[in-house]
Amino acid sequence: MDNNSEQAFLAGYSMDDYERPSVTADVAAFMIRSEACGSYRKEPQSRLSVLLIRRGGHPYKDCWALPGGFLQKGETIEECALREITEEAGVAPAALMLTGLYTAPDRDPRGWIISAAFASVITDTETEPVGGDDANDAQWFDVSFDNDDTGSAVLTLMHGNIRLEAHLTEHRSSFGRTEYRIAESGGIAFDHAAMIASALSVLRSGAENFSIIFDFLPEKFTLNQLQRVQETIMNISVLPPNFRRKAADYVTETDEYTSGAGHRPAKLFMKK
Amino acid sequence: MDNNSEQAFLAGYSMDDYERPSVTADVAAFMIRSEACGSYRKEPQSRLSVLLIRRGGHPYKDCWALPGGFLQKGETIEECALREITEEAGVAPAALMLTGLYTAPDRDPRGWIISAAFASVITDTETEPVGGDDANDAQWFDVSFDNDDTGSAVLTLMHGNIRLEAHLTEHRSSFGRTEYRIAESGGIAFDHAAMIASALSVLRSGAENFSIIFDFLPEKFTLNQLQRVQETIMNISVLPPNFRRKAADYVTETDEYTSGAGHRPAKLFMKK
DNA sequence: CAAATAGTGTCTCTAAGACAATATCAC
DNA sequence: GTGATATTGTCTTAGAGACACTATTTG
Description:
Chain A has helices spanning 6-12, 77-89, 192-208, 223-234, 240-247; strands at 22-35, 45-54, 64-65, 68-70, 95-102, 113-121, 137-147, 152-159, 162-172, 178-184, 251-257, 267-271. Chain A has 272 residues and is α+β, with helices and mostly antiparallel strands.
């Protein structure tokens, strides 16, 4: 063998001897939706939402799952994730990041299927999710994620009167990242509840340092909008003057202003 | 189909119709090695090292690569990574974290092989790397990683008079993480230079917030040792009183002291 | 004018960097 | 004693939270 040329080696090489897994990409796509409320001059409520699809076939028939699909030969896993989320949501996401690789041998009753989990951000447009190629039902679910410091967390997803409540245990790795294991899936298909929790964890740390929040907004935005995005994702509350001070390092001002709201116009900013 | 039970569906399900990739785990295992220098009372130099293996077969014959191997049915990707690094380094790593999934269709001339990249930490013991099951040559390489802020980075790996220098371009993702693409592999096999750079990036952020540095040290350690680990990984320099102040939140003191060095004994601490 | 957001300035507290000074051991 | 690390304390500066206050618009 050592005397063979590389070409000769490759010509005789075969990987057919080993069993191989199917590989999928599952995408937790987030969007921030605003919901008008009460007084004409009050700002709308903002909610973080994640896109779920109702499974039309087995396994987990009629359960809600993340959009995703099989990796095809000739594409990268990111291309696969983009393709799947685009097909399901009808829009190209503004950001995409690998959050985990789920490989438990029994995670899918269909057989040996491993899945790369992604977090992604959909810029708020008027896009309504479309039923994908499988004619499945795709809907945005309001996200609520409470992780007390006791090592357990509760993920609640709501759409209309559908309420999915998953219970997870937190496991802090030596590298500072937190992984989640499902204690109670709450009707969410496969291990997708853990994927959503991990994606939220990544989303929050990305929102903290101003690296992800711009992707939720159009090109030009007010500082108040920006603040609402950060607050909504991180589930915190900041005083406007203090937020303004921090945000100043990450934005450039334009010479445009909003108008039509029941209060002083706000200057529009862009990402620096 | 909708009327079938789930059991009937699964009994008739077959995934043989789709082509599937081979999946590997590649592990960037780091260790900090101390190198006595000069005066008897001076602290030894510390260097960050990564374990590489000289490939005995094609492709990339005689090039240096990360230890790794194929995912087997019935194991998780983490178990696979642990198994491979244990076989190669002869010791179980103290930490393991997924840093990326490399899926470019042409990344491996043998065919469709995707790889999960891990960062891992080997506690400094007297362990010498063993030639693995392939009778390959395994060696620790000193790591030097300079990323100027211009978007390019240089990764230099040295062992004896072997010097591998890879050039990479940095790509900051919307989620705040940095990905690396290889401009010049410097003789490092496959896309492993990018894997090492990504692992270093993760290692540095883990060292910054005291989440990973303890894994490089034995159970009890002095604050000076801890400081050296952080400084070595992050390539920075901190004044000892200031480091002591920050570290205080993360350690518990014992009632033991070092002795035998040419200076005042130091109290031993443990991870809190 | 009232209600709401937009925007500025300032006080305080904390964390981090710089650095002076003392303590203690092996040789 | 000398040379090294160990350890404590303090000064200064940067940043974040709290908050008082002014500005501007629509109904």
